[in-house]
Amino acid sequence: MAGTEITRRRLYWLGLAAMAVSAEGAPAKRAIGGAERWGIAELAFKGPQVGNPFLDVSLSADIRQNSQSITVPGFYDGDGIYRVRFSPPTEGIWHYVTKSNTAELNGREGSIHVHALSRNNHGPVRVANQFHFAYADGTPYKQIGTTSYAWTYQSDAICATTLKTLDGSPFNKIRMAVFPNGSVHFEPPYPFEGSPGHFDLERFNPIFFRRFEAYLKALQDRQIEADIILFHPYDGDKFGFDNLPTAADERYLRYVVARLSAFRNVWWSMANEYDAMKYKTEADFDRFFQIVQSADPYGRLRSIHHMHKFYDNNKPWVTHASIQSGAIAKDDERASILRDIWRKPVILDEVQYEGTCPYRWGQLSGEEMVSRFWVGTIAGAYVGHGEYIENENQAVWVGTGGKLHGTSASRIAFFRKVLEQGPKQGIDVIDKWYDRHLAGVPGEYYLHYFGKETPQSWNFVLPQEGLKDDMQFAVEILDTWNMTVTKLPDVFVLKRKDQYDFADTLGRSIPLPAKPWIALRITRV
Amino acid sequence: MAGTEITRRRLYWLGLAAMAVSAEGAPAKRAIGGAERWGIAELAFKGPQVGNPFLDVSLSADIRQNSQSITVPGFYDGDGIYRVRFSPPTEGIWHYVTKSNTAELNGREGSIHVHALSRNNHGPVRVANQFHFAYADGTPYKQIGTTSYAWTYQSDAICATTLKTLDGSPFNKIRMAVFPNGSVHFEPPYPFEGSPGHFDLERFNPIFFRRFEAYLKALQDRQIEADIILFHPYDGDKFGFDNLPTAADERYLRYVVARLSAFRNVWWSMANEYDAMKYKTEADFDRFFQIVQSADPYGRLRSIHHMHKFYDNNKPWVTHASIQSGAIAKDDERASILRDIWRKPVILDEVQYEGTCPYRWGQLSGEEMVSRFWVGTIAGAYVGHGEYIENENQAVWVGTGGKLHGTSASRIAFFRKVLEQGPKQGIDVIDKWYDRHLAGVPGEYYLHYFGKETPQSWNFVLPQEGLKDDMQFAVEILDTWNMTVTKLPDVFVLKRKDQYDFADTLGRSIPLPAKPWIALRITRV
Questions:
Q1: What is the pLDDT of residues A212-236, one digit of tens each?
Q2: In this structure, which long-range contacts are made by residues A390-396, counting pairs with CB atoms below 8 Å and at least 24 apart in sequence?
Q3: Is the Cβ of A316 closer than 8 Å to some Cβ of chain B?
Q4: What range(s) does the DUF5060 domain occupy (chains A, B) (predicted)?
């Protein structure tokens, strides 16, 4: 198949050669150089090809530096090659010893020399400041998501278009599924050997995974996180991947984790619309979370996405809430309730789609899509984009990728700039439960968002937290749709107004353009 | 003290004589008659008075009928009298055997004859239909709460006024604290022996509890549930009850449960504003919940009330969520999120107070207070009232009871009537997350609430769930403030409008009075 050949070429093109991919046959100790901190050091070994290596052969490596030891699962990559992918959390020398039920692969030892970060490597994204995210090197990560479930199941040409679209977009996370989607266009290869109706659930398909990994790497090169959806209910009885036997579910999860967890831009989404998966129970997803949590040596972010029934995101294996709801993204007080309840970061991953879908969940105007990013931010949460506008082939971004046709993305890019200029620790709700529509860092930085309202002025009043008399503030008026920033010449000086608020000493108001989609950015001078 | 004497008289007045209160000294088996199903059968025994009976003597009874056995804790009631209060869940004969570390109280046996319910006894309130409540006999219980923290700490005269106020009010639940409130007027007795600064934390004060129980019974006679607040942060360093040693906390909980749990109108609220209790951690409240859950033989409803930090109401010992938030009660979509997340009944116990408080949490107009009841109902939740309007003694209902001075209670009575005429199984959100502001039972019963909006008409359109062509509906316009019900002469006949909705066949709209606080009641003909 042409697709497969191109895939192999692409692997090199994408620079996976930087990994130590050469298969090693000799039992002697060896040293691997050139691995980068938070990059991938890959151990490759020749091993048995008889029987079914996917089932019969176990492999892992204990990788140690001083008192720290990490057990990293290995996997069979076909053609008699076994691999262990290690993403080193620190520089210097790490020593590995393999464990296997096969003598050939057991007790293999060596060392890995890890050098410093390259320029665009900030490490994996983690939860920071309870409700926010940061890269492991401390650089803030302000999540601006999008969704394209089956983009990797398209032709190489369309995949290339998708990557080009992402190059020109503001998105730094994409939600994407491992399994194909029965209701949108898909092309082989598949994660299992075989074809629809004839899958061998005991044999994975390395060709599929190499291609998938090449795209993970392509996203990583673009500083885009890959929120990998492990299960979804859109099988449409075409593949049966939503209804695997229990043992196959677990093998699948362990194989995916062994192959992909070393990519530092990987996040795990246990499922899309888990509550719409008719063959699985909530307890199954509890189990899936725990399998992934225990198998993943790097503790990548973990969440689950719902249709109507919120998962209990208080459960300890959930790192952040992944939310689908249009209504919640229309009102910052609604969205902030989620933060308050789960005490974790909240990503409004699906707030309905911009587009012209015949269904009401895909009919947002560009203005409304952009507004939901601002509303979510004022709630101290993060937001995801999606687009349902058919191209000449009746394909849509949210299904298969390709090009964007909507009007929101450029405004989301403006929004991203504002966010990145904002406080490093993240934007938190200020004076919640009083419909202030105000967020930021008390005493330092405030965003106030008016949404659809078209006021002619705003009284300079701020809630007392973090404020003192005589503090000075500058004000910028942001037209979030027309992407303008207008800095007011005045400096506003605070004076206590009452037991709750401070106001401008001169009692000044701020004139506003009486248009929708206006925000104020108020910063300490 | 005059108060104490009056209390003793009151005990008889309140009909506690109906319990089998006579202390029994003989070791022979005896039979108690006259106990009512879900009433209280009380066993009383003479026992040791030496040492400290509160610490030294353990007592419980195993009470059995056929294969069902209930272990009921006993308590020391002073003057050498020990009691076990049993609220029998079924009619017929129950056999008891006591257990004690004192020979005198150990192995006492007898039988209890339980007869049928009296007219106003529907049994205890329990969770029903996941999000709602019903009495044990199946009668729906539509919660209409109010709060008066320290009403039982007032003079007998004021307490009598409070009960009279409740007689004329719509409220069928009152939130009330065991411990006094340092910032409002209080009078002895106290739960512990002694006085402020000199409490003996190893001795409870039976006189306090007998008075408290008399008021519980007075509430029960009025069909009012008592949501008993076990801890609160308003001690103000006057009593130290918010900072008891661990052992005293547990003894207190066990003593309260042993004395009060047999009252069928008891609910347990672990705390008011638990997160404002500076000497207690969240883990303490987990523990308190578990102590109460294990000690209470009747499984009374259990909740906890917060200030800013929601408790994790998914925890298994929480029967329903008890919420404080003005913002949440302003928007049904906000409130329904809580139901969705916790999958349990939600009571918006404090939605701010009607009144003229200098603080913003006590400044609601009567209209706004009433509106929150309607909004909460449309969210499939329940709501509580509170009033902060000072009387001539600077006392307010929410602190000390007395009279109500606001304008909301009569409208809440109108609301209660609507609720009681509504579907037995409760009112649930219909087509959530689309800002329909519609709730009821699909295909049967709809409430639509307009709040502050003042529309001139409403298009007859309903979401498809439960609907078919040609179904017929009647419409009533409810003016929730002026308490009028206007039935429209027309009958509306359904026809499918699109993939989501049905509309009136003739495309009719409903003319509305262009006033705020309007609701529609739409019922199947």
A1: 999 999 999 999 999 999 999 999 9
A2: A390/A356, A393/A185, A395/A184, A395/A185, A396/A184, A396/A355, A396/A357
A3: no
A4: 36-101
